Structures are given as C-alpha cells and as structure tokens.
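seq:
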Amino acid sequence: MPGGAWTTWRGPRPGAAAYAHRWDRIRINGLNLGWTATPGEDSIQRRFHDGGDDWLEKAGASVPMGKLGQPDEIADFVVFLLSGRSGVVTGSVIDWDQEVPGAHDWGAHD
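struct:
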C-alpha cells in the first residue's frame, strides 16, 4: 500500500517444481498480485479506511500506472499463461504490483 513499508513472504517459488517437471512438459508459473480493485477491496476501504466514493480514483493516482490491478486484466494474463501461446515460459513469478524488486523511487513521484 502507498505510504507504508510492507514485507510479504510469497511462499515457495515455482522454480523447483518447474525444474522437476520440465521434462514432463508441464509449465509452472506464479503470479504475485498487488493492490487490486475488487469488490472485497472496496468493502475494506470503505469499512476500515473511511474510503469514500472516490477512494479508487485516489488510490489510482497514488500508484505508478495510474490504476490498481484490474481483475479482468489479471484473468486475461492467467489465460495466456495457461495457453500454448506462452510457449516455454516456466519457473517464473510475475509481479503484478507496480513495484520493481530492489528498486525505490525515493520520492521521485512526490
């Protein structure tokens, strides 16, 4: 979330499983979701964070791409990963959270 420091343990990476099954031609990938515009998030923002009708607009303005993760875009990407069009992609974790691991803006957008 903007303005805070969050540490998340993402659990096992798919690399070991992907390595074990690569000769079985089974592709294993992961998707690390960040802040996403869902009905549940809307409820949380309104109930616990005093979010008004404009909370989603304000949240979008606070992140680099100008919007929170969108469920339909995430679903489209999952369908792509499950399809043959994803080719030989295996053992990857896609960070869908507008952050670059190991990098920080240090106020560049303030």
